[in-house]
Structures are given as C-alpha cells and as structure tokens.
C-alpha cells in the first residue's frame, strides 16, 4: 500500500490524504497511518495548502527528491543510453554513448556496469533499483534475455542476475520497446491516457501496449512483436521488421534502394517529410493497413510514433489516419489517433529508470553497494 501511495503522489493523480484514500479505496484513517509512516521514514513531506471550492484546506503531499534515486539503461544496435531519476521521478542526469558494431554479451554487461557506476557520481541518497531495456525477447520474471534478433549471441543471458551480483540491489530487465512505453506513460503524453499503443520504427518495428494504465507484456512476454509477421500479410517474403523500418522507409522515399542510410538518418527523414507522390502514398498505405488491423484487435485510444521514423512528423501520421479510414471504413467507430511522440532520444533510458521506479517498495529498499 505504501508503494502504491508513493506511485500515485509521483504521478500527480493525488495530492492530499483524502484524495489518496478515495483513489486507493481505503479508509481515511488507514491512509493516515500509511502516510505518517512514509513521512517518518523520510519519503514524503506535507507542505503548503490546497484550497478547494468547499471544506477545509488540505495539506499537500510531496515526495522527498533526495530520499534516493533510480537508474535506467537501454541499449540496442550501435548505442547505449542511461538516465538517473531522483525519488520524485525527475531526471537528474542522462548520457548516451556509441557501441561497437559487434559486441559480446559479456562485453555488454561490463559496459552496462561502467555506465551505472558513472551515474553514481554526485547522486544523493541510496540507489533503490536499476532498470534495463534490452532488445529481443525478454523474460522479466527471470531477468533473462531469451534471444535478440539483432544480437545473435544473446541467448538465455541472465542479465539481472549478473548485474545484481555487481551492485547488490534489485535489477529489473524488460524488452526495450516495453521500457520506451513506460517512458511515454510517465514522461510523455501517455501520462493522461490509460489506453495507448507505442509504435516504434527504427532498426525494426514493434508495438508497446498499455491497457487500463498497465503495460501489457503478454503471456509469453512477446506482446507487440508484430515485426516478425510476413509482409505483405498474405505470405510475403519479407518481415514487417524489414518493410517498416526507418531504414526501409528512407530507401523508398529517397529512391536509394541499394544504399546504406546516412549516419544521421533522423535528419535525412526530416528532409523527406514534405514528400509527395506515389511512393509516399504507398508507404502511408502500408502503415495504414497494418495499424488498421492492429486497431481492430486492440481498440486503443491513442497511438504514439517513436523511433527514427517519428522525424516524418505530424503530416505522416495524419495521412496514415486518413488512409486507414479509406481502407477500413469499419474504423469510423474506433479511429486511429496517431501522432509523433513528444519525447526525445533518451526515452529508452527514462523508461528503464521508470521500470525500477515503479517496482520500488519500502519493505525492500536498501542502500546500493
């Protein structure tokens, strides 16, 4: 219950004892006991007054930022990023570094350790947890990366266990798209939505799904792994990963079908955002068809476009929404609402730190090693 209280105050959904009691459906007297304990433990403070239209002013609850902190690390082909959040969920420090094109699992674990230790510098209070976002199929319950399509030597890697040995605190591991979805929930426009889908197109393509305010991982931890579908859906020779990636879209729009994308693919896509013609329409149609099928299955309220492809901007999203209704008139009752994310390139690190932040429990909290 105290962990839930902290999460609700951090999210901004409740600012006073009475609001918390109503939101969490417990007696005000019981809520008072929990709040008092959190105040005594140094996690909460009451300050200022909230004046409503009626009744007595309520004392506002705030988290103690210096009570501790959380680390998030997310990596994929070519780069690693990390972030440190204070106890209130505010970003204190982030960093991003390039990775070699080929890196073994052991080397990657050493690199993650080095990045986490760097984030210890200047931190106030204990580190309460580390969240990791990894590409591939991840079993969060075991903290194991089962396999990664983009890192072939990653098979049954006990990532959480290896890092827990080195730091002596709780480590959580999730698929990197899932942690990016958590970033949208805590730091993006998803803060105000309980039902949304993150669409990510970078090296590949995948979905992160939130239902009733909770991440939907799936029974086998593979919800949203639509990148492995054949494309076209009628038994195409390529996978959605290949056909819908940012690289593939750049090749189509630029006409450079046999060329490697430029180093700054985001900038290259921005330069193509005003494209017109048959090729643009074909890309839009593909996306509209795939997302239309997904919408008929999950019936999401919002879609947020993440990854390098978000550089194509609002017009790309608007054209997809319009085309989806032309292809599937049935969607008029549950239309796709798609827009580029407002988050930056550090979304993965923020989401990984959010993974640790959501898992915080005062009964388990202890200083980092």
How many strands? 17
Q: How many domain units? A: 3
User: Which fold name fills CATH's third level, the topology of the largest domain?
Assistant: Nucleotidyltransferase, domain 5
What's the CATH first level of the largest domain?
Alpha Beta
pLDDT averaged residue by residue: 91
* Percent of residues in helices: 25-40%
CATH superfamily of the largest domain: ATPase, nucleotide binding domain
Order of helices and strands: HHHEEEEEHEEEEHEHEEEEEHHHHEHEH
Which structural class should the secondary elements be placed in?
A: alpha/beta
**How can the largest sheet be summarized?**
5 strands, mixed
CATH hierarchy: architecture of the largest domain: 2-Layer Sandwich
Describe the structure.
The structure is a single chain. The protein is an alpha/beta fold. It has three domains: 2-63, Winged helix-like DNA-binding domain superfamily/Winged helix DNA-binding domain (Arc Repressor Mutant, subunit A); 68-181 and 347-358, Nucleotidyltransferase, domain 5, CATH 3.30.420.40; 192-340, Nucleotidyltransferase, domain 5 (2-Layer Sandwich), CATH 3.30.420.40. It has twelve helices and 17 strands. The protein has helices spanning 2-11, 17-24, 28-40, 105-119, 159-167, 176-187, 240-244, 246-254, 265-270, 278-298, 313-327, 347-358, and strands at 44-50, 58-63, 69-76, 79-86, 91-98, 127-134, 137-139, 144-147, 155-157, 171-175, 196-201, 205-211, 214-215, 230-231, 238-239, 302-306, 338-340. The strands form five sheets. The protein has a five-stranded mixed β-sheet with strand order 5-4-3-6-10. The chain has a five-stranded mixed β-sheet with strand order 13-12-11-16-17. Helix 6 crosses helix 12 (347-358). The longest helix is centred in the last third of the chain and has 21 residues, at 278-298. It is globular, with a radius of gyration of 22 Å.
């Amino acid at each position: 219950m105290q962990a839930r209280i902290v999460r609700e105050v951090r999210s901004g959904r409740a600012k006073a004892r009475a609001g918390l009691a109503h939101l969490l459906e417990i007696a005000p007297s019981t809520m008072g006991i929990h709040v008092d304990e959190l105040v005594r433990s140094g996690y909460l403070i009451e300050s200022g007054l909230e004046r409503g239209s009626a009744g007595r002013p309520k004392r506002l609850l705030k988290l103690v930022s210096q009570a501790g902190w959380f680390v998030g690390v997310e990596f994929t082909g070519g780069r690693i990023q990390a972030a440190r959040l204070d106890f209130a969920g505010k970003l204190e420090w982030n960093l991003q570094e390039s990775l070699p094109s080929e890196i073994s699992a052991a080397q990657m674990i050493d690199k993650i350790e080095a990045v986490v230790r760097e984030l210890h510098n200047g931190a106030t209070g204990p580190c309460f947890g580390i969240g990791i976002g990894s590409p591939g199929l991840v079993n969060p319950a075991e903290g194991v990366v089962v396999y990664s399509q983009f890192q072939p030597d990653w098979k049954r890697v006990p990532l959480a266990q290896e890092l827990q040995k080195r730091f002596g605190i709780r480590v959580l591991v999730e698929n990197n798209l899932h942690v990016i979805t958590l970033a949208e929930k805590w730091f993006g426009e998803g803060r105000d939505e309980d039902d949304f889908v993150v669409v990510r197109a970078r090296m590949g393509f995948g979905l992160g799904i939130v239902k009733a305010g909770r991440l939907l991982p799936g029974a086998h931890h593979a919800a949203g792994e639509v990148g492995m579908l054949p494309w076209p859906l009628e038994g195409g020779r390529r996978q959605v990963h290949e056909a819908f990636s940012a690289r593939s879209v750049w090749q189509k729009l630029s006409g450079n079908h046999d060329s490697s994308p430029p180093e700054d693919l985001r900038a290259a896509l921005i330069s193509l955002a005003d494209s017109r013609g048959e090729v643009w329409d074909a890309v839009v149609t593909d996306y509209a068809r795939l997302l239309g099928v997904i919408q008929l299955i999950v019936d999401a309220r919002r879609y947020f476009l993440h990854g390098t492809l978000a550089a194509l901007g609002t017009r790309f999203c608007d054209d997809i929404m319009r085309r989806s209704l032309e292809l599937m008139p049935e969607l008029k009752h549950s239309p796709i609402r798609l827009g580029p994310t407002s988050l930056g390139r550090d979304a993965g690190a923020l989401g990984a730190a959010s993974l640790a932040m959501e898992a915080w429990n005062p009964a388990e909290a202890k200083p980092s090693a």
